[in-house]
Design goal:
With 134 residues, the protein is an alpha/beta fold. The protein is built from 3 helices and 5 strands; from the N terminus they run αβββαβαβ. It has a 5-stranded mixed beta sheet with strand order 3-2-1-4-5, covered by helices on one side.
Length: 134
């Protein structure tokens, strides 16, 4: 056939950008959907820039929780069991005027343990909380 051209032997020089654009747009949509959740996760910790004397709560008015590196708990100096912690904190907060809980933990403790103590103290009625390092 004299009029037909044979294109089967020529290489394809066009790049199909449609799959690349589709994947890019899907990734943009996923990042837009996930970004607000990534920014709001966590615990807000405010560090005081004031001196130690300003706004100081006396230790007798606060509820003191100590978590040692072995995982034993003490509440205001007396040792308690972990499963009794929420009830004991609630009982101690009833006696406290300012509902202030100080959690003291060793640096060897896992963050999840300390956060669990803070969360249960909040559920027991604590209005203010502080973290201290042993």
């Amino acid at each position: 056939m004299a009029g037909s051209s044979n294109n089967a032997d020529e290489p394809i020089t066009d790049i199909n950008l449609t799959p690349l654009v589709d994947v890019s747009l899907v990734l943009v949509i996923i990042f837009m959907a996930v970004a607000p959740f990534a920014l709001t996760a966590g615990i807000k910790v405010l560090q005081s820039k004031a001196s130690a004397q300003v706004g100081k709560v006396s230790l007798s008015e606060s509820v003191q929780v100590r978590l040692n590196k072995e995982g034993r708990l003490t509440l205001n100096g007396s040792e308690i069991l972990r499963e009794n912690y929420p009830a004991e904190v609630a009982r101690a907060l009833v006696k406290s005027d300012d509902k202030f809980v100080i959690v003291k933990a060793d640096t060897e403790n896992k963050v999840g343990q300390v956060v669990g103590l803070l969360d249960e103290a909040r559920q027991a009625g604590a209005l203010k909380m502080a973290l201290m390092k042993n």
